[in-house]
């Protein structure tokens, strides 16, 4: 059994290495079309994986699609896990009573968020200036109000309930439907798609890190740090985070696999990426123009399957070892 798992790990690592190598040597844009060689079958003297209905080489399209896949999935997975892990750890440690803020600063914060939401539509073209101005005004208002007797009173912020409510709100909407709706509205771009995937895929890491933090907070070394009077953020950064980070590390490959699946689906439906960017999903979609061109389904489909399978195989092989080495899962 152990040797079988080792062979599976070697196969998965080998495929991911080839994927990274292919993305490195891939062209930066889609291969040019050639209308004289449309829908050429594989094993051609020049196009050994064939061409699509507009004459683009399938091999070059696969390499360019690998580059686009890594350019999107790696940053989006890292950012979403960092965002979700940070929010989950903060929610698990601070709960609903640890974080206290003066009434004056809380009122200024509420007014700032309300003002930005109300003026975002009319001042969309000057959104950056709007945010800077709102932050400056709220800072002055918060300092002024907190100087008063009423504004200096402390208010317990239910941070855990707020983050859990946001997670429940995002999870109540089907993920693909939410991403597809927003991607269809916004202008296609790599950075926009990465931002969209980041703000929609952070909920699962947040739940995992919140649960891990709740199991870590009662431990003696955390209680000793609190008794010593260390600042809460330092306790989270120096004592809790080193204990729970393997949970996030085990989740990252699954996040990459999820984001690859979402990006491929969006590309297949024709949204999310600019037209000049090659994608495995776009290559799959070209099979609708030539239903008999089986290679347009087999080649990108095999690449997608092997990539997602490799990531899941590595996660399954390593997660038990990583989690068993921490107090979180004991």
3D structure, described in words:
The protein has 330 residues and is mainly α. Helix content is 69%, strand content 2%. The protein has helices at residues 2-25, 58-94, 103-119, 127-146, 159-171, 175-185, 190-200, 203-216, 220-227, 232-269, 280-285, 295-324, and strands at residues 100-102, 154-156. The chain has a two-stranded antiparallel ribbon with strand order 1-2. Helix 1 (2-25) crosses helix 12 (295-324), helix 2 packs parallel to helix 8 (203-216) and helix 9 (220-227) crosses helix 10.
| Element order: H for helix, E for strand | HHEHHEHHHHHHHH
Q: How many domains make up the 3D coordinates?
A: 2
Average pLDDT, rounded to a whole number, is 84
Give the C-level CATH assignment of the largest domain: Mainly Alpha
- Proportion of helical residues: 55-70%
Radius of gyration: 25 Å
Q: Low-confidence segments, ≥5 residues, pLDDT <50?
A: 326-330
- Profile the largest sheet: 2 strands, antiparallel
Beta-strand content estimate: under 5%
Distance between the termini: 24 Å
Major β-sheet strand ordering: 1-2
Number of strands: 2
Q: Structural class, from secondary structure content?
A: mainly alpha
Write down the overall geometry: flat
Q: What's the helix count? A: 12
- CATH A-level architecture of the largest domain: Orthogonal Bundle
């Amino acid at each position: 059994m152990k040797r079988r798992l080792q062979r599976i790990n070697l196969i998965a690592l080998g495929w991911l290495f080839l994927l990274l190598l292919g993305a490195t040597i891939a062209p930066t844009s889609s291969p040019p079309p050639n209308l004289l060689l449309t829908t050429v079958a594989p094993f051609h003297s020049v196009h050994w994986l064939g061409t699509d209905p507009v004459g683009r080489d399938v091999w070059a399209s696969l390499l360019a699609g690998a580059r686009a896949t890594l350019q999107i999935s790696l940053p989006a997975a890292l950012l979403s896990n960092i965002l979700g892990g940070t929010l989950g750890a903060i929610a698990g440690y601070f709960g609903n009573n640890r974080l206290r803020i003066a009434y004056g600063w809380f009122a200024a914060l509420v007014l700032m968020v309300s003002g930005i939401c109300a003026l975002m539509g009319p001042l969309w073209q000057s959104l950056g200036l709007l945010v800077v101005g709102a932050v400056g005004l709220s800072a002055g208002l918060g300092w002024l109000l907190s100087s008063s007797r009423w504004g200096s009173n402390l208010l317990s912020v239910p941070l855990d309930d707020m983050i859990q409510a946001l997670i429940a709100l995002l999870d109540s909407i089907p993920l693909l439907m939410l991403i597809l709706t927003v991607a269809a509205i916004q202008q296609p771009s790599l950075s926009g798609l990465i931002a969209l995937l980041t703000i929609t895929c952070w909920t699962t890491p947040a739940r995992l890190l919140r649960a891990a933090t709740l199991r870590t907070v009662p431990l003696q070394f955390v209680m000793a740090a609190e008794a010593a009077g260390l600042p809460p953020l330092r306790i989270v950064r120096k004592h809790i985070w080193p204990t729970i980070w393997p949970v996030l590390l085990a989740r990252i490959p699954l996040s990459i696999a999820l984001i690859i699946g979402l990006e491929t689906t969006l590309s297949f439906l024709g949204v999310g990426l600019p037209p000049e960017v090659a994608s495995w999903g776009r290559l799959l979609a070209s099979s609708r123009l030539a239903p008999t061109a089986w290679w347009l389904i087999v080649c990108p489909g095999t690449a997608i399957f092997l990539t997602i399978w490799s990531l899941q195989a590595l996660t399954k092989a390593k997660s038990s070892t990583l989690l068993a080495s921490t107090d979180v899962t004991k």
